[in-house]
Structure formats: C-alpha cells, structure tokens
Design brief:
The protein is mainly alpha-helical and about 400 residues long. The protein contains 17 helices and no strands. Helix 4 packs antiparallel against helix 8, helix 10 crosses helix 15 and helix 12 crosses helix 14. The relative contact order is 0.16.
C-alpha cells in the first residue's frame, strides 16, 4: 500500500448507514447479565466454579463450530441477514439461560448462545469494511473499526451498570431479561441497515481453496497468532474479575456492575488512542504494547489478597484491571484491521470468522482443561502470576517474529 493511498479522501460525508451501524455495535454485545454471571451461576444456582468454566467452554466450542459455516453463508448471501438474525437468536437464548437450573440445560443454552454469537462475529467487521469500500474510503477502516469498537464498549458499559442495578433490585434473572430486550432492539436496528454494500462482482462462492489462498498471504498467520494469544489472556482475566472482587470482600452486585461498567468505559476511551498509537509505533510496537500492559496488570493483581484494606484493594485492583481494558480497546481494531489489509474481499467474512474461531477454540481448550475450583478461589494469586509470565513470554516471541515491513501505519 503506497503512502498516497493512505491520504483520506477529501469528502467528509459519512457513508449511508454508518450511524446506524454504530448504534448496532453499541447494542449487539450489551449483555446485561455478564456483570453478575459468576454470582448467577455459582451462588444463586449452586454450580461449582469448574461447572461455570465448563458452561463457558460449551459457549466457545459452539462458536468455533459455527464460525466458519456462518462466515461462508455471509460471504455467499451478504452480511445483513445474519446481522438481523444474530440478536434474535441471542434473545431466545438469554430467555432460556436466565431460567435454567440443571447442568444439561445450561450447557445447551450456553452452546446455543455461542452459536448465535458466531452469526455476528466477523460479519459486522466485514460489513463495515465493505460499507467503506463502496464509498472509496477503505483508508479509514482502522479509524472506523476503532469508532465502532468504542460504541460497542460504551454500550456494554451502560448495560453492565444497568445489569448490576437490576440484579441487585430484582435478582439475577432480571438481568437476563433486560438482555433479551436489548437484543430485540439490536435486531430492529439491523433491519434499518442498508443491504449488503458489496458490488455484484465481489460476491464469489466461498471455497476452501480460497481460504487456503488467504492463509498464504504474508503475515496472516502472525496476525492470527497475536489475536488468539491476546484474546485468551484477556478472556481469562475477564473471567477472574468477579471472583477477584468476591475474594477481596466486595460481593455487592451494584459494585460488580459498576466495576465492569467503569472498565468498559475505560476500554471505550482507550479506543480513541488506537489510530495515534498505531501511527506512532506501527503494527509491531502497538501489538507488543498490548501484551506488556496485560502482563503488568496480572503481575500487580497477583499481590492483592483479602488482607488488603477493601477500599485500597478496590482502588488498586480497578487501576490494574484498567490495563487489561486498554488492551481490550486495541484488540478488535488492530486485529481486524491487520487481517482486513491482508486478505481479498471474496473470503473476507470467512477469514474474519476463522480469526475468531482460532481464538475461541484456544480459550475453550483452556477452560475445559483447567482446575478452576482452585484457580478461581484459593490459588487466585498464583493464577495471576502465571498469566503475567505468559503475557511477557508471548510478547517477546511475537515481537521477534514480526516480519511484515510492507504495511505502513494507518
């Protein structure tokens, strides 16, 4: 890509549908039950932490199974139908999940949730890319990915706060019901999006051969490895938020909702810095920074325990959690853009789905193989220390193996 191609087009007119897409991004991941999920499953319903981890492994394995098929459907027929169907599917899942009491039913509901989430995973990024491409504004993809991610995180922040308040006032089931309403609004918003903006000539029949060709593009494997590593570390850290608060003596659901709300707000604001950071440090430096921030967060959290004064622990813990959320603010824009700039249009959704597939498969394997009864409780500090070491080692390995010098900072 030449430096001239990186100059923004003179027009300041926003592509039709961009504002609606941003609203859709704000709604689609706003799961109001997430800030109280550990309490909902382990305290309210009596499941063990290991059961809880198995539920989430079912979610991620279902996403893995569904990612590529849904991606191929979107590549063949367009993204918009899946952007509508995904929230409707999730609404039905949340209604069931909020009232499930047996291990088998919860496993099924979580797996169905993962399959529904796979409908929109990658599809939204592909839709945004093609929306900009139609107006000749592909150069703005990193900026618009960051904006969409910021809207997404602000939406999650509001839902987290509301979820904590509703759960405190009316029980954790009410947080699931609130999520159902949000998903229905998201589906209605998707109906207002323009039809898939891809040109007719771009709509090719997806094939495994095309996927293989996309995988052979320079730097694709490196991007997939970085995205998967950051995703796994962030998701483990995220699953530890509520056990950490409980271990420190903060079991009030309003505190849980407010904490997660604040963290997603921080992540949203951090997305404002993505383009400037990428321009200053390039892809290699930015991706390394993301992993180092996580390593520092995990290291600091490994020193917190119940003997620390509650207010001090909450303040320090929230600050350390923020390091993770800054990294989370960079994951989607950097990971999606790095892949988008390396792959052809006809296989775009399939490859973006493959990126999510690999990351979620890796995390699902971690969940299903770990001893989480101890890791979420008595061995919490050791868990954080192990994560810190892993983050630093991965950062060093990926920094040294980054070989792509052809891409200019966007």
């Amino acid at each position: 890509m030449s430096p001239e191609s990186l100059v923004p087009p003179p027009s300041t007119r926003s592509p039709r549908g961009l504002g609606t897409f941003r609203l859709y991004a704000a709604l689609t991941f706003a799961f109001a039950w997430v800030p109280v999920m550990f309490t909902a499953f382990t305290i309210d319903r009596g499941f063990s932490p290991t059961d809880y981890a198995r539920f989430w492994s079912a979610y991620y394995f279902a996403m893995v199974i569904a990612e590529i098929p849904w991606g191929r459907v979107a590549d063949r027929f367009g993204e918009r139908p899946l952007l509508i169907a995904g929230p409707l599917w999730l609404a039905a899942c949340f209604a069931l999940l909020g009232r499930s009491e047996s291990v088998g039913v919860v496993m099924f509901a979580m797996a169905a949730t993962g399959a529904g989430h796979a409908m929109i995973s990658g599809t939204d990024s592909a839709y945004l890319f093609e929306l900009l491409k139609r107006d000749g504004r592909v150069v703005e993809i990193l900026h618009e990915e960051a904006v969409a991610h910021r809207w997404r995180l602000f939406g999650v922040s509001i839902a987290d706060m509301l979820g904590g308040l509703v759960a405190f006032a009316a029980g954790t089931v009410a947080a699931f019901d609130l999520s159902v309403v949000i998903m229905l609004v998201a589906a209605y918003t998707a109906c207002r999006l323009p039809v898939s903006p891809r040109a007719r000539d771009d709509v090719t029949r997806p094939s495994l051969a095309g996927l293989g060709r996309a995988l052979r593009h320079p730097g694709v494997f490196w991007v997939l490895a970085w995205y998967a590593a950051v995703f796994v570390l962030l998701r483990i850290g995220f699953q530890l938020y509520q056990p950490t608060l409980i271990a420190l003596g903060a079991d009030n659901l309003i505190v849980h909702g407010a904490t997660l709300s604040l963290l997603n707000l921080i992540a949203g604001f951090s997305a404002l810095t993505v383009r400037g950071t990428h321009r200053r440090f390039g892809e290699r430096g930015t991706t390394t920074m993301v992993l180092i921030l996580m390593g520092l967060s995990f290291l600091g959290l490994s020193f917190l325990d119940a003997s620390t004064a509650l207010l001090v622990a909450l303040g320090v813990g929230a600050a350390l959690f923020c390091f993770q959320q800054v990294s989370f603010g960079f994951l989607q824009p950097i990971g999606r853009t790095a892949l988008n700039m390396r792959i052809p249009s006809g296989d775009r959704v399939t490859m973006l789905s493959a990126q999510s597939l690999i990351a979620r498969l890796a995390f699902g394997l971690v969940l299903i193989t770990g001893d989480w009864d101890a890791a979420f409780t008595s061995d919490l500090q050791s868990t954080y220390l192990a994560l810190a070491v892993a983050a630093v080692v991965i950062a060093a390995c990926l920094h040294m193996t980054h070989r792509d010098r052809s891409l200019n900072p966007l």
